[in-house]
Amino acid sequence: MATLLRSKLSNVATSVSNKSQAKMSGMFARMGFQAATDEEAVGFAHCDDLDMEHRQGLQMDILKSDASEEGAEPPLEGDIHYQRDGTGPLPPSASKDAGGCAELSGQGKPKITAWEAGWNVTNAIQGMFVLGLPYAILHGGYLGLFLIIFAAVVCCYTGKILIACLYEENEDGEIVRVRDSYVDIANACCAPRFPTLGGRIVNVAQIIELVMTCILYVVVSGNLMYNSFPNLPVSQKSWSIIATAVLLPCAFLKNLKAVSKFSLLCTLAHFVINILVIAYCLSRARDWAWDKVKFYIDVKKFPISIGIIVFSYTSQIFLPSLEGNMQNPKEFHCMMNWTHIAACILKGLFALVAYLTWADETKEVITDNLPSTIRAVVNIFLVAKALLSYPLPFFAAVEVLERSLFQDGNRAFFPNCYGGDGRLKSWGLTLRCALVVFTLLMAIYVPHFALLMGLTGSLTGAGLCFLLPSLFHLKLLWRKLLWHHVFFDVAIFVIGGICSVSGFIHSLEGLIEAFRTNAED
């Protein structure tokens, strides 16, 4: 009997080990893995620790139940439920009305307060990409400032209506949560004719944005180091190669717990750096060039500025997971209001004050305008932040690619990249390294921070923040919407579409021109 019991426990432990990767993927998806920007997952570091403790406790419960039963191994809650296409079976604790929400709202799960949720949103929309906003004012003047305010209002509104798409009325007239993620909303809109098309579109947009974010980190690292030490015989491309060599170990990442903690410290350091830049600008207030801020736009470059501004506000992709993990989801609207109001004020002041200080000499990355004595110190901190933030979007992109192409059961396009023991196969590791090298090549051939940021904001940022939320809101809830909601949704879709197309075309033209110039050199 003792031998049989030991054998049973050994088999169960092996099975749990084989599924560890799937559980980490599912946990990361729930705790913010669907993030689209650089720091969405940072604020989840504390919750990540609590969730790991809960998962370990769950494994022990399974081992105990298996030791006392002769039947088959019970399913691990969370392994299947958190499939990105939302088609996995529900855990036993899920009710008919709550659907997949039971996992998110179950007892004993770590929940976050409205302030903690606001911190996550703030990390997403107040990241280091605000360094490009003064460059947007350079080409847009007061209209650029207006767009910073307008983008904040629209992104706040679309974030709220996106969360509204997660809920429906049940037979008793109660509002219940029936969807868990952006992908679930997209699939619901395309059902029943194309039940997975919407999710695939959202996944593609997410992958593009995450990979472009990684490229931007390499670009900004090379740019900052080159401008910090201009006397060294090292080019910007060489600095980018050095940065990528430091980032190559990202291909071996299995989780982001340690990296998230370091990134959280870098986020705090970044806020300090922003304060230092503003303080320097205030010290030169007597020389501010108010006459340079005009009601004009650079027709050729202003659409790029639109993409830059939109990209700095992207957070919609992870809002469903965030709202599902709040202690009181009713506080979500209030949280969105104060976070976007604060972001609007801080971004507007930062962009205006920085532009007034340097006027027509404003560069793509504003810290490059600082005096050499201050610039080197500030830029080194920013490079450290960029390098430590790179693993977050990289790991998220890898997770989406592996889930969609290699681990999607019978629908996978390629063989599973993980072996029977749960370890990554050698060719899977090679593909991860290839993704890191791809970000380097893009950074080398197109080392233009503003153009890449504008292209990403115009293509995926506008789509995920403007177009899709308004379209999904109209599709799923149009019978219950008031006329002014319909008007707002249609207006946002039209304006967002025009800005997206215009910004994408101009950014793409600039990138093609830059690519040709680099190729000739």
Uncertain runs with pLDDT below 50, 5 residues or more?
Answer: 12-108
Mean pLDDT comes to 75
Radius of gyration: 24 Å
Structural class label: mainly alpha
The CATH architecture assignment turns out to be Up-down Bundle
| The CATH homologous superfamily | Amino acid/polyamine transporter I
Helix content: 55-70%
Order of helices and strands: HHHHHHEEHHHHHHHHHHHH
Trace the largest sheet across and list its strands.
Answer: 1-2
What is the CATH fold-level name? Answer: Amino acid/polyamine transporter I
> What is the helix tally?
18
Total DSSP E strands: 2
How much β-strand is present in the residues?
under 5%
How would you sum up the global shape?
globular
Total tally of structural domains: 1
Write down the CATH class.
Mainly Alpha
- Measured between the Cα atoms of the first and last residue, the distance is 76 Å
Mind describing the biggest β-sheet? 2 strands, antiparallel
